[in-house]
Amino acid sequence: MLQLLAHAGADHTPVVLTSRELGERLGVSQQAASRYLLDLERRELVVRTLANRRQRLHLTPPAMELLRGEYRDYRRIFEGPGRTTISGEVTSGLGEGRYYLSQPGYVVQFTERLGYAPFPGTLNVRLRPSEARRLAVVRDWNGVRVDGFEAGGRTFGGATCYLALLNGRRSHLIRPDRSHYQDVIEFVAPERLRTRLHLKDGDPVKANLEER
Amino acid sequence: MLQLLAHAGADHTPVVLTSRELGERLGVSQQAASRYLLDLERRELVVRTLANRRQRLHLTPPAMELLRGEYRDYRRIFEGPGRTTISGEVTSGLGEGRYYLSQPGYVVQFTERLGYAPFPGTLNVRLRPSEARRLAVVRDWNGVRVDGFEAGGRTFGGATCYLALLNGRRSHLIRPDRSHYQDVIEFVAPERLRTRLHLKDGDPVKANLEER
DNA sequence: ATTACTAATCATCGAGTAG
DNA sequence: TCTACTCGATGATTAGTAA
User: Fold this and answer.
1) What is the DSSP secondary-structure string of B98-140?
2) pTM over 0.90
3) Residue B49 CB in 7 A reach of strand C
């Protein structure tokens, strides 16, 4: 149903579609289509405006995210896992990485889903604009999800992690859902990369990114 | 289930997966997973070899075609409809187009699904190798299907049609499932293109192909 | 351990119909 | 017309268990 609505354009503009039409295209009855819509509405995947007997439908961002996830899965089958290289130079952050990676809410998730306890701090890498553009494709990859949570009266956002070999060392690129910077990216690893790789600000680094 | 198997690599090599594992990953019981497999096997989408209690699974070509169709649908949502231009020069076929397009089995399907009664004959266009390569992407598009059938003791293969503007005229590129040539493509239209466009062998033509 | 049958349960569907 | 309710039938799922 979501796929059908997306094809009809409900991803970018409200679309008028009767439940009878939807039912026909889905091969189910009008009643079933109506129920599906109610269900999707309840799950906040579809927003409906009922103007005198005609419903206008449009898809919410979570619905598009869901469809994009499916798209990613199918693309992985036919195009294979994504792979790219990105290079930049080491830079200093504002100590935010250390702060976030000391939050238990993040630590348990990183440990469970990445398979290692993260060193409490991130390595910041500044990208040149051309490199930043190459990073855009990573958005369409299937990464390891880290969910947002609330703690101590504030909310911590979610992120997606992508396996990386940073100068040959196992690490993960972290992409926060709400990213502030575009030219600085952060890596997390089981060890302090700066020490292990003898890096200082301005040193060039190269990361091999792999999907999954 | 098919998607899951494809991800596990069952598209190119047999994979050992218990029904318990499959059930877990699908969020259903072991019994249900077993039933799904039996069903898929009956529909010839999965081939199973049961070696002493361990089943090895692999996906059949029809299953991959089914998944590819899904992939196409999702890609259309996020990448938009495909569009390309292809050029070549008019050539003479062997009169096969006329023969095929006089088969009622094809005529009714073309008429219903393309929206016009096809002129009984195709326009053949010879491509240079560089152009032929650009045609490869069309394989991943969603086209109009024309199914194969049997008539008069022989079988006629299926094909996929793609909307084209050939020198501005509405027509369809025909891609037979079992294509013999790679450098010659065929177009069908409601009228005799050769006459309407005043074409003779060797004349250059340009086709704007659009998905859907 | 497996796969898969049977029986009971449960969810889903469409017909009829109300608003 | 439209959406969406109730309800009986149909279908699917799981638990228990056999092979």
Assistant:
1) HHHTT-HHHHHHHHHHHSSPPPSS-EEEE--HHHHHHHGGGGG
2) no
3) no
